[in-house]
Amino acid sequence: MSPQSRSRLRILSGFIIFFSIIFIARLYYLQVIHGKEFRAEAEKQYVSTIPNLFDRGTVYFKQKDDRLVTGATINSGYVVSITPKLLTDKEASYKAIAAIIDVAHDAFIEKANKNDDPYEEIAKRVPEEKANALMELGIPGVKIFRETWRYYPGGQLAAQVLGFVGFGNQGNELIGRYGLESYYNDILARRADDLYINFFAELFTNLSDTLFDSDKEQEADLVLTIEPTVQGYLEKELQNVMDEWHSDQSGGIIMDPKTGAIYAMAVSPSFDLNEYNKVKDGTIFADPLVQDVYEMGSIVKPLTMAAGLDAGVVTANTTYDDLGRMTMDKKTFSNYDGRGRGPGTTMQDVLNQSLNTGVAFVVSKLGNERFADYLQNKFHLGDETGIDLPGERQGLMTNLTSKRNIEYATASFGQGIALTPINMVTALSVLGNGGVTITPHVVDEIRYTNGKVKKFTPNPPEQVIKPETSEEITRMLVTVVDKALLGGTVRIPEYSIAAKTGTAQIARPRELGGGYYDDRYMHTFFGYFPAYDPKFIVFLYTYNPRNNATFASHTLTMPFIRTAKFLLHYYSITPDRVKDVLGKPVAP
Fold this sequence. Notes:
By secondary structure, the chain is α+β, with helices and mostly antiparallel strands.
């Protein structure tokens, strides 16, 4: 073969290889990326279809073994309609149809008698097998259309996190409403394109769109950090709290305190996402864990104590004379029981017995300005956390700009400042994770339809308290659980748990005179474990519990302990406490 012939052969081979690559790329684009849409088009050959069928990206929960479970998807079925003037025998038509699907007789006859109306729907979301059975009857005037809609397989599971799809303010477009459906609406939404294209004609056209499809960079599915079994467990525990204490509301967050990944996030009462239109009070759709602020009470005390430890003004063994009450700026506050513990009261005693005067003492050692700096600029109380959910609200921290000492004293035990639950649990995570800030999040991955995957990228961590401060406050909170929480009766021998309760008075609205209710409280509880290398932080609250609910230690301790035991078992966490020769656990 001559050199010229070999050169031509190479050129020809190059063209063949080039077009083969284009062909394979186009085939992948049509069968994989657009496979769902073309399958839908194929179905149009057999049944009438509503134009521009609704489509939307999928939202997945992630199980502990990384398997995905669908949280929000598209379901399909059929609409059955009639053209009244074409029904030759209305009663016979009704009997034939009613033998297959549920149709009320009077409603059917009323629609069937509208002879001037060319279209009357008699049933929606009819399963495929029943739609096929109706088509086989061949009743004149009966038409069947394919339809699609947003479907949530878990029903109520993670309702406030997911949100739902409904009509926007204009009333003519389905969009995400609340939760992730709203926050990520732009990438979950799908274009209402007319997808009918001859397959082989499409195969060799729009090649540039195949290789450089910019539109697909705007369409994606979501993979969440939410673990469905953990989410379900938390929702059950919150419902138990509601049933037992008849609270106005209860909520909880389970999070990794090192990464900010949220395993569960729930509120009770809740609602079924597939039947949101049946909800009478629309305020239930919003997520109070992100959008509402509360005075948190004594779970703020560990932050105050950590500030004192970090600044070096107190240690766990520092003492003061507890008189049971203090007066500042002509205002008096006291410990929860009004009693003083006397001289020699240690900072460990302050946390064990939740003494308001003790954390006010820490503030007096820190100074108001430095105390406010720790709460606002280090723990970032009152700031937005940046969580990927809509409507996050800033806290109410104006008391920390006051010139009065009383405002700083009350803030030290969680009164007079109001925070979102997500802000609170994010700040508390700093205590157990070595002293660094985190970014809470519920989305782990964004999977674009063009094949690209975007992993969650946190904000750069900031070291806000020293690692040794984190270890010391953790040791103090472990002592609270081991010796003080319900008298030390709920400690888990094989695991170290750091925790603290909180009970705060609920503020009375200004129109009712301001101040605080004497008989309404916000109960809170947080804990992280295993304490010295925590995998989980759990935050619980219940708002205005009844049935003689006095303190959070009564309402929330057992739900927390049950949740901790469940998580430790479910994730097979190795015990962090060894045993001595007598078989008794020894703290790390």
